[in-house]
Amino acid sequence: MRTLTTLHSFDSADGANPESALIHATDGYLYGTTTARGANHDGTVYKFTPQGALTVLHSFDSTDGAAPTAPLIQATDGNFYGATSTGGANGDGTVFQMKSDGAIATLHSFDGTDGAQPFGGLVQATDGSFYGTTYYGGTQSYGAIYKLSIGLGPFCESRAPFRHGGNRRYNLGNRSEGRDKRQL
What we know:
- This protein folds into two domains: 23-148, 6 Propeller (Neuraminidase); 154-184, no CATH class.
- It is built from no helices and 14 strands.
- The chain has strands at residues 23-24, 30-34, 44-48, 54-59, 73-74, 80-84, 94-98, 104-109, 123-124, 130-134, 144-148, 156-159, 168-171, 182-183.
- A four-stranded antiparallel β-sheet has the order 1-2-3-4, with no helix packed on it.
- The model is unreliable at 174-184 (pLDDT under 50).
């Protein structure tokens, strides 16, 4: 038997138009974004329990970004990272970091020449850097691929195996169960 249960209906005060996928974070909560409304009408970041209890963590105010369309990621440092498609210092979108308490830090404001409107999500590569794309901007105005390094170290390392040839790679990130090192 299939059963669909509505866990929460947005009411404008807590945001509207959730376009991005949810993520299941290491603290057990589900996290997501809305592209509109909230306290400042520029979208929200929220967390909720699997039972549906929702908490708004941040309401964007255009200066720190607006309309986050991409899903959040939880990086190896345990913080959340995402992008807003508009707003920021130049109105062309931002990349931001969010602590688990909802405190937002703008890491980059796009200015058109380096890209604009980062609709797609971020990925943290094994070198610790974040990579993403923008819909517009760049040198030809048809979008850009960007890399943002903020000093997070790599989360994979190579080790010589015991009595065998070749190398093995180990995941050092906190996304594996029990925070142990898992052989890839």
